Amino acid sequence: MSIADRELVRHYQAIYREKMRGLPICNAALEVQVVGFRPLDQHQVGVLITPWFMNLVLLPGDDTWASAADGSADTVSLPSEPCEFVVSRDATIGTFLSAVLFRTVVDFPDQGTVVAVAEEVLKRLFLPTAEPATGTADARHVSRRTLLTGLRAS
Questions:
Q1: Can you give the C-alpha Rg of the chain in angstroms?
Q2: What is the CATH number of the domain that holds 21?
Q3: In what order do the strands lie in the sheet with 73-77?
């Protein structure tokens, strides 16, 4: 785990301890964890799990978003599809971007299950969009909803 990953975990553990613990939107079976951070160009991207949400997080490796307003959105190209992230700033972590994967995690039974889902999401997000079998350039766009539900557009 990198220094940035550890800071991200510490930051959200403190939020949980100080503000969120015991709230009905939290799943007491879950803990704060980062999963699968890997390089994306000069940045790092992975999943942040908390007892109240699961987000895709991008930790910038340069000053690309240094002048972006806190709360502004930007689209980042992932190997599978473009994804819209929201810019956030923290005194300890610095600038980071996040995209909601699950607004609530109350239905996950345990940490192992939520980690397995996070790993699968990352696996799919890092697969390049496949060319259709016909060889045409009309590859299907896979939305985040499709990715997470396993449904395919017809």
A1: 16
A2: 3.30.1460.40
A3: 33-40, 43-49, 54-59, 94-102, 82-90, 73-77
Residue 11, class by beta-carbon neighbours within 10 Å (0-12 exposed, 13-18 middle, 19+ buried)? middle
Average pLDDT over residues 86-100: 93
The helix (run of H) or strand (run of E) holding residue 38 is strand 33-40
Q: Is the pLDDT of residue 20 over 80?
A: yes
In a domain, 54, yes or no: yes
The mean per-residue pLDDT over the stretch 4-12 comes to 90
Contact in structure between 68 and 58 (CB atoms under 8 Å) = no
In a domain, 152, yes or no: no
What burial class does residue 91 get, using C-beta atoms within 10 Å of its C-beta: 0-12 exposed, 13-18 middle, 19+ buried? exposed
Residue pointed to by tokens 């799919």: 124
**Residue 131, pLDDT above cutoff 80:** no
- Residue 91 CA neighbour count, 13 Å, CB half: 0
* pTM exceeds 0.90: no
